[in-house]
TrEMBL record:
This is Extracellular solute-binding protein, family 7. It comes from Arcobacter nitrofigilis (strain ATCC 33309 / DSM 7299 / CCUG 15893 / LMG 7604 / NCTC 12251 / CI) (Campylobacter nitrofigilis). InterPro entries: DctP_fam, SBP_TakP-like, TRAP_DctP_sf. Coiled coil: none annotated. One of its GO terms (cellular component) is tripartite ATP-independent periplasmic transporter complex. Gene3D superfamilies: Bacterial extracellular solute-binding protein, family 7 (3.40.190.170), Periplasmic binding protein-like II (3.40.190.10). The keyword Ubl conjugation does not apply. GO terms for biological process: transmembrane transport.
Length: 357
């Protein structure tokens, strides 16, 4: 009996040791991922968000999760990021959800919508107003997860070679403005085109286009548009442009829980960091722009033009949701949250600025 007891104890001890050894091996396992971006290696701050995220993940995981960031010049498919992540060629991607409208219209609103929420309002909707749950629902058929990936804040309405005084001044203009905003402008009589970034300056200089929108001073300054087009219009079309981290769900589910938590935390932190980095870049760039090019005129589109844009926006939204119940659910959620949160934005930010400018 004593011998049996001793054998049993030895057996239990060996099982415990084996379990500890297995746990140790799991803790020591290194996961190597790849991330594809839509951006080139010098497009700051867009490329900085995934780069900083990968650095944080490596440090927080003590090297157990390593993410290699491939810029667009490496994988050669800037608008193929969704397909590459979905197919498992890359475990992650960094892009913008509205690029996938042609593949799945339900994904469009998770970047921003014309006349929509500001960046703080939209972040509140994502994390506390049901936005993350709706985004998970929209990406589930693609077997992917999507997380906020960095915000530009309100983008400027564009650089124009001539002043826009009436709605008639827009008609017939050739403008580079992509996406849903481009559909709105086309409805107002503009000829809308989408030109590769590297060709924009030359196109504007040669008169191939009359106007274009890019982002804001922080990213516009290196493009040189302010040297050609003196009228800089304030925004309406992308009030809170949120980039995205795409994650292959199968790869995500294979990660230990602690690495999942580290990844999610790093994505969230790097996203907010990009927002404040871009804010600083724009403030710094605008200070230089107005000093070096005092002829730049910051304008707001006249009220009749804005009213026409809003009308076209509402008409296109109504057409767009027909036959797409999930898209309607997302847009309704955004609209309801914006109505609620805008009261506080007005009280806290608008009235403060109104009284102190």
């Amino acid at each position: 009996m004593k011998m049996f007891s001793k054998t049993t104890k030895l057996l239990v001890a060996s099982v415990v040791l084996a379990g500890l050894s297995t746990a140790s091996l799991a803790a020591d396992k290194v996961y190597k991922w790849k991330l594809a971006t839509t951006w080139g290696p010098t497009l700051h701050p867009f490329i900085d968000a995934p780069t900083k995220m990968a650095e944080m993940v490596e440090k927080m995981s003590n090297g157990r999760l390593l993410i290699r960031v491939d810029a667009a010049n490496k994988h050669k498919a800037p608008f193929g990021v969704l397909d590459m992540v979905q197919g498992g060629q890359y475990e992650m991607g960094h892009s913008a959800s509205y690029y996938w409208k042609g593949k799945d219209i339900n994904l469009l609103p998770f970047t921003t919508m014309p006349f929509g929420m500001t960046a703080p309002e939209q972040y509140a909707w994502f994390y506390y107003g049901g936005g993350m749950e709706l985004m998970e629902k929209a990406y589930a058929p693609h077997k992917m997860l999507s997380f906020p990936g960095g915000n530009t804040g309100a983008q400027m309405g564009g650089w124009f070679r001539k002043e826009i005084k009436t709605l008639d001044d827009l008609k017939g203009l050739k403008m580079r403005i992509p996406g849903f905003a481009g559909e709105i402008m086309a409805k107002l009589g503009l000829t809308v085109t989408n030109i590769a970034p590297g060709e924009l300056y030359t196109s504007l200089e040669r008169g191939t286009i009359d106007a274009l929108e890019w982002v804001g001073p922080g990213m516009d300054i290196n493009m040189g548009f302010h040297k050609i087009a003196p009228y800089y219009y304030t925004g309406w079309h992308e009030p809170a442009t949120e980039l995205q981290f795409l994650v292959n769900k199968r790869a995500y589910d294979k990660l230990p829980k602690d690495l999942q938590a580290i990844l999610v935390t790093a994505m969230k932190l790097s996203s907010y960091d990009m927002y404040i980095q871009n804010y600083d870049m724009s403030a710094t760039a605008w200070e230089k722009m107005k000093k070096d090019y005092p002829n730049i005129k910051v304008e707001t589109f006249p009220k009749p033009v804005m009213d026409a844009m809003k009308k076209a926006n509402q008409e296109l939204r109504k057409e767009m949701v027909v036959g797409h119940p999930l898209l309607k659910e997302v847009l309704d959620s955004q609209e309801a949250y914006q109505k609620k949160v805008r009261e506080w934005t007005k009280m806290s930010d608008y009235l403060y600025l109104k009284d102190n400018l």
